[in-house]
Amino acid sequence: MILTDLLNIFFPIRCIYCNKNSKKIPFCQKCLLKIEHIDERCLIQGSNRAAFFYSGLVREAILKAKFEPNESVARALSQLWSFYFCQNENMLFFLENKPACVSFVPLHWRRRVTRGFDFAAIIAKTIAKTLEIPLVDYLKCTRLDAPLSNSQNKEERLAKVFGKYTLRKKTTVKPHILLVDDIVTTGATFNAAREPLITAGANVTCYALAYTPLND
């Protein structure tokens, strides 16, 4: 505790948007108020859910994290989501029971090497720590496809990601998995990623950092 206080004095946490001093997370109170949350009871694209709308400051930060790329911003966003979980007593009410573990929708290894990190994996690690449950790397991305943002509709997206994710070898899945990703649009990627987990006998809850309509 003393060490943390000293570090905050000499190396203060700063808001990634306005660069003002912050406290526990890299977002000042003023900027936090500008972030558009999604009601925790709201279903996005069927059974999928998301914490924030892909707009404003969240959109700006996600673009910076993914395409500069900037791992520190990715970690800041994961802390924001974790903070959101902790501050909302009803945030996890939709879980019929506490997940046995957290997993994530992985990047293809080539894209991960190019970017230097896997954004969804960073989010999953933070959420697993918040919920005090294991993080399990269940899935493997088998193809390096063009970004889904180039697709015009849900059917095209579903076709592009069909069979893209498989379970890693010698994997025994836990009964209830919280599967996370950075952005959900039509839910095509979540559908493809959850399929091998459901086939293996798991109940899968999908949750993204942000939600954006297809035409955004």
The proportion of residues forming helix, as a percent range, comes to 25-40%
What's the end-to-end separation, in Å?
A: 44 Å
CATH architecture of the largest domain: 3-Layer(aba) Sandwich
Strand content: 15-25%
Strand order across the largest sheet: 1-6-5-2
The biggest beta sheet is recorded as: 4 strands, parallel
Q: Any idea what the shape is?
A: globular
Backbone CA Rg? 17 Å
How much is the average pLDDT? Answer: 80
User: What is the CATH topology descriptor of the largest domain?
Assistant: Rossmann fold
Integer count of domains:
2
What's the helix-strand series? HHEHHEHHEHEEHE
The CATH class of the largest domain is: Alpha Beta
Task: Describe the model.
It comes from Sulfobacillus acidophilus. Belongs to the ComF/GntX family. With 216 residues, the protein is α/β, with parallel strands linked by helices. It has 2 domains: 1-34, no CATH class; 35-211, Rossmann fold. It has 8 helices and 6 strands. The protein has helices at 2-10, 29-32, 56-67, 71-87, 109-115, 119-131, 154-161, 188-199, and strands at 49-53, 101-104, 139-141, 165-167, 176-184, 203-211. It has a 4-stranded parallel sheet with strand order 1-6-5-2, sandwiched between helices. A two-stranded antiparallel sheet has the order 3-4. Strand 5, helix 8 (188-199) and strand 6 form a beta-alpha-beta unit.
